[in-house]
Prior knowledge:
The complex is a heterodimer of chains A (249) and B (321). Chain A is mainly α and 249 residues long.
Amino acid sequence: MQGYWTLTRRELAGFFLSLRGYVMIAAIAFLIGFVFKVLIKTLGSDPSPMPVTELFYSTYLFWFILLLPAPVITMRLFALEKFSGTFETLMTTPVSDVQVVAAKFTAAVVFYLVMWFPLLACILIVKHYTNDPAAFDAGVIGTPFLGIFLLGCVFIAIGCFASALTRNQMTAAMVSLLLCVSLFMLSYLAERLPAADWKAQVFSFFGLPDQMHDFGRGVVDTRPVVLYLSLTFFFLFLTLRVLGTRRWK
Amino acid sequence: MRMNGGLMIEVENLTKRYAGHAAVADISFAVARGEIVGLLGPNGAGKSTTMRILACYLPASSGTVRVAGLDVFVDSAEVRRRIGYMPENNPLPQDMRVREYLKFRARLKGLGRKRCRERVDQVTEQFGLKEVSRTIIGQLSKGYRQRVGLADALVHEPELIILDEPTIGLDPRQIRAVRQLIKGLAANHTVLLSTHILPEAEMTCSRVLILYEGKIAADTPENLQQSMSSNSQIVAEIAAPEVELQECWSQMPEIEQFDISAMDGEYFRCALTPRDGIDLRPHIFALAREHGWYLRELTRNRHSLEDIYVRVTTPEEEEES
């Protein structure tokens, strides 16, 4: 357990004690603010029955912010250690592979959540200027964050897996972006296939946009929760297996 | 734990194959506690692979490896706790401060908070890292980085220290300092280090294993030196008329071959190869007294590690030509 905490702290320090971390936070804060600005402008000229928060989660703009950061956060986790050779010094200490994967994943998720704080600020600002208190109860604000957290876990687990595959950070980022975007697009593929097709039915389980829209409305459905958790564990398990491959060579 | 008679490392029939090619082929050796053993060999001889297997980073393809009586595959975590390992090129994170890094490593190796602080203070002192303890590792000179690597290998007081090329890329003064440090470790630790620099192995290690193409080409140079000393040369520097020397050497039945070359003043350098490993030195001294020659040097060339090294690591065709 000590190994896990020590490693998590080290990884978090790696995020927060470098310029890189703050550049990422600033970039995401800018994008979130930008999207909000666009939405409020749109609402001003073209009113919608949806509150602005819900609108935020159902636009494509939101998905840019959701899909971009995970590959960038996770790309260096294993790839950099392998590239610089510190992976060898790490793996020859008495920590287990599970501890290493868990620590890196935890640190990445914590950083990812911190990155979303500016969204909370945006919501509070909108709340300040609106006169409808019902649109802003804790549940309506909280559930989207649950969705962002759970889906973030999936994307970060995918990123961990991609980073463990290679020693090159760019390759890791591209592979994880590819996997995340493909996962996101599955539901669009499902819509284009005839509904009776078994492939359409399988793909429609991965309807990330619709599921996120539910979270955005304040609806917590157990199906996406189970799906996201199992995807997270599946990719973390794959990461663990990839770390183990050096023992088969 | 099985009884192992004070052996720190036991390697039996170790083989490691990478994609069909054997990096290490069926080697066996043992290292007793308190020894400083050098693994010597040209690049690609299997030194790093052997060390990585000992450090539990890579598994063996076949054979058994035990450290302090524990199998590196079965009791991997416990073995790793007892080993301080510094890989080749001493990889360090560039973005951490020296003290922060050592603390991180000590905690990772399972030291308690208090013990961690104590040990970090001790190794900082021991390796002269005090003045750089707040410097970012990326900004350190190579010599300091090497010391940080060594301090990391030692921070948890391991029984066995494995150092892969510890002096590579250092300047001569730093090399000397690192050697001193390693020698200083011998009292409380067993050390296994690899190098392709011969004098280094000769100076630092109490014993040398020469690896060549994944096999142990030579063990314990003392033994080898004895077996090779049978035809070792005697060099004598004598002031005498050259003709007289030539006559003398050709008449001695113990001498198989000789070579005389002029030196400064009246001195001649005589290189004499004895027959059947006879020690010629008393004979030469007797001759010098008899003829009233001045004798200023009389030495027997022991085969240096370099001779052994070259002999065991030269492909056979080349040796013949």
